[in-house]
């Protein structure tokens, strides 16, 4: 009986021991499972963190590429527009600062997991700075557009000014040409007068004095008229014919000379003896007598004479002085002179002045 009790007690011990070991084994298995599960969770979290880190790196890389592109665009805008160089320089410095921040952020990404939150915050700050730079770039582009429009307006104004300058240059050239033509006309009139004077000297020779400047001739009244008379002396008519015939031939027979003659005038002059009105009447009648004699020389030339010839008395309004004293003998005279027509020259001068205005 004792033996059986001892045996039963041993069996119970081992059963209890086996149960205890089984329980300990179960607990150990549970502990191992918990450790495995915890490890899996930890690995999953680490993988997620690493994925987030890689994603952040990609985002930062894209941001860096975009910032590099903006930097190149910014540099190109700066080279195109010197007007906005100051603003672009500021943006460039800001980009450089942000690029330095990005470099620092990239370095921080290589740190421990405990700094990931700091990197996320830094990434947020970088994105805000990037948006700020984009805003500045948009403002710079708007300013560039405004400047471009202003330049276009200035180019339009410059084109108008250039066209106006070209038009003024053409007008000025035309005025110069017209002025040169007018000068040529006036010079031509002077040349015609010289030609007439030379012809008169050639025709009349030394018979009578001819004014070298005006081409006028002077005939003493004492040779043509008696004192106080306006009738031509018979002996003076032959001399007067020999003088006046060739003088009028030179002026009226040559077409080139005649078309430039405005009129031929016979002037009677007296000395200062007597009243002005009496001398005016006498000088006028003497001038008419000479003109009537010219008409009698050649009736075929009457039409030309009517067109060009005139006579008037000057009394003593144009005395001849010698050393400041009246020369009465020289003052009593008949003058025959001609005037050239300057109508064309005057018209051309007026046309030139009107164009200039």
Automatic annotation (TrEMBL):
GO cellular component: membrane
Segments crossing the lipid bilayer: 20-41
Keywords: Coiled coil, Membrane, Transmembrane, Transmembrane helix
InterPro entries reported for this sequence: Bact_OuterMem_StrucFunc, OmpA-like, OmpA-like_sf
Positions of the OmpA-like domain: 212-342
Pfam families: OmpA
Chain coiled-coil ranges: 88-136
Name of the protein in question: Outer membrane protein
Protein's organism: Sulfurospirillum multivorans (strain DM 12446 / JCM 15788 / NBRC 109480)
């Amino acid at each position: 009986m004792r033996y059986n009790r001892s045996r039963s007690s041993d069996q119970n011990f081992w059963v209890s021991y086996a149960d205890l070991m089984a329980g300990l084994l179960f607990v150990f298995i549970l502990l191992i499972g918990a450790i495995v599960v915890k490890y899996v969770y930890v690995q999953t979290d680490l993988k997620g963190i690493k994925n987030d880190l890689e994603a952040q790196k990609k985002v930062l890389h894209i941001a860096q590429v975009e910032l590099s592109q903006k930097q190149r665009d910014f540099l190109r805008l700066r080279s195109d527009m010197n007007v906005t160089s100051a603003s672009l320089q500021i943006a460039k410095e800001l980009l450089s600062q942000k690029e330095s921040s990005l470099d620092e952020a990239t370095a921080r990404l290589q740190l421990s997991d405990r700094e990931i939150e700091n990197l996320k915050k830094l990434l947020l700050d970088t994105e805000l700075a990037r948006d700020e730079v984009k805003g500045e770039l948009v403002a710079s582009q708007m300013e560039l557009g405004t400047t471009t429009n202003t330049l276009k307006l200035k180019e339009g104004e410059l084109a108008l000014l250039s066209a106006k300058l070209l038009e003024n240059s053409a007008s000025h050239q035309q005025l110069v040409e017209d002025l040169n033509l007018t000068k040529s006309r006036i010079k031509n009139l002077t040349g015609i007068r010289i030609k007439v004077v030379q012809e008169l000297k050639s025709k009349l020779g030394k018979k009578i004095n001819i004014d070298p400047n005006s081409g006028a001739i002077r005939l003493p009244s004492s040779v043509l008229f008696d004192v106080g008379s306006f009738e031509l002396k018979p002996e003076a008519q032959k001399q007067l014919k020999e003088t006046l015939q060739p003088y009028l031939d030179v002026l009226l027979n040559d077409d080139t000379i005649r078309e430039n003659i405005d009129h031929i005038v016979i002037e009677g002059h007296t000395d200062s003896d007597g009243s002005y009105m009496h001398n005016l009447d006498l000088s006028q009648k003497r001038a008419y007598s000479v003109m009537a004699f010219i008409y009698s020389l050649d009736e075929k030339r009457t039409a030309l004479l009517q067109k060009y010839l005139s006579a008037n008395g000057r009394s003593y309004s144009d005395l001849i002085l010698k050393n400041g004293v009246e020369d009465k003998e020289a003052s009593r005279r008949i003058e025959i002179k001609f005037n050239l027509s300057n109508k064309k020259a005057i018209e051309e001068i007026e046309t030139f002045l009107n164009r200039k205005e």
